[in-house]
Amino acid sequence: MRGILGRKVGMTQLFDDSGQVIPVTIVEAGPCYVTQVKTVETDGYNAVQIGFEETPERKLTKGQRGHLAAAGAPNLRRLVELRYQGAPDLGLGDEIKADVFDQGDYVDVTGVSKGKGFAGVVKRHGFAGGPKTHGQSDRHRAPGSAGAGTTPGHTFPGMKGPGQMGNKRVTVQNVQVALVDPDRNLLAIKGSVPGPRGGLVLVREAVKKPRA
């Protein structure tokens, strides 16, 4: 499965040949380096580990430095593994740039969503709130009943309630690559992707490719 790590730069817009506005997210993708190749014979499955974002040697452990040196890769801060159906056609130390994707490709983008702190059920889950008349002066945004009484005597797991909102690993699927700029290691992806500006994102070949 083709993939690359990058940083979210921000959003802007492009114009197609007909003058239609296309909102896009710019991702600084790569360069990444192949730091490990796994095959069915050696590891029981096919995968490639790629690294991104060079970092000072002092920020890596001895084991990490040895692992990267054996691959002929620089000191890299982020490592991620990509599964492959067949044997990967990549070798240790190979460089992966933004041109791993072409304009028009469909991709899945994974990142950590913006953290929004503790939130109530209206903001977190879209609850409607309670009635605003008949003396309900303090129940406008309350969740209401959360379960039965004596039987079963508890609320069931997974019940929607207030709590931490955001700061979760999120994947948006089947978004299209609008522009590829390998010289500047940039990808323009249609629409929005998870995370704040500067957030780490993983761009992978779409799993659920849309029908032609």
Describe this protein's structure.
This protein has 212 residues and is mainly beta. It folds into two domains: 3-115 and 169-205, Translation factors (Elongation Factor Tu (Ef-tu), domain 3, Beta Barrel), CATH 2.40.30.10; 116-144 and 153-165, no CATH class. The chain has helices spanning 40-43, 62-70, 121-125, and strands at residues 3-15, 21-29, 32-38, 47-54, 76-83, 95-96, 106-112, 118-119, 163-164, 169-181, 186-190, 200-205. Strands 1-2-11-10-7-12 form a six-stranded antiparallel barrel. The longest helix is centred in the N-terminal third of the chain and has 9 residues, at 62-70.
Give a quick precis of the structure.
With 212 residues, the protein is mainly β. It has helices spanning 40-43, 62-70, 121-125; strands spanning 3-15, 21-29, 32-38, 47-54, 76-83, 95-96, 106-112, 118-119, 163-164, 169-181, 186-190, 200-205. 22% of the residues are buried.
